[in-house]
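Can anyone check this?
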Amino acid sequence: MTTIRTTCTRCGDVELTTADIGLELVAHGATGSYRFECPFCGVVQRRPANERVVSILLATGVTYEVVSTAGPITEDEISVFAKALDQDGWFSELVSQG
C-alpha cells in the first residue's frame, strides 16, 4: 500500500493512504490542490498542488476531480437564468442541445 507523507498545520507530519486524499485539478491546467482529514486531530486540510505534486498523486492512484476556476455564481447570472426560464421553449431548446 502506498503511503503519502504531508503536514497537518496542527500536528506536523502525517502519513496517509491514497484513499485519504482528494485531488482537485484546475480545468485546462496541470495544477490544483489536494485535501485530507488529519488522522490525529480530524481537521480538514487543503494544500496547493503544483505540477510535480499532481504528477506524484496521480501516479500513486489518488482520485481526482476537475474543478472550474470561474468563481461563485453572481446575482446577475441568476437573474439572467431566471428570465430565461420565463421564455417559452427553453426546455425544448435544452433537450435539442443534448
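Reply from J.R.: I decoded it. The longest strand covers residues 21-26.
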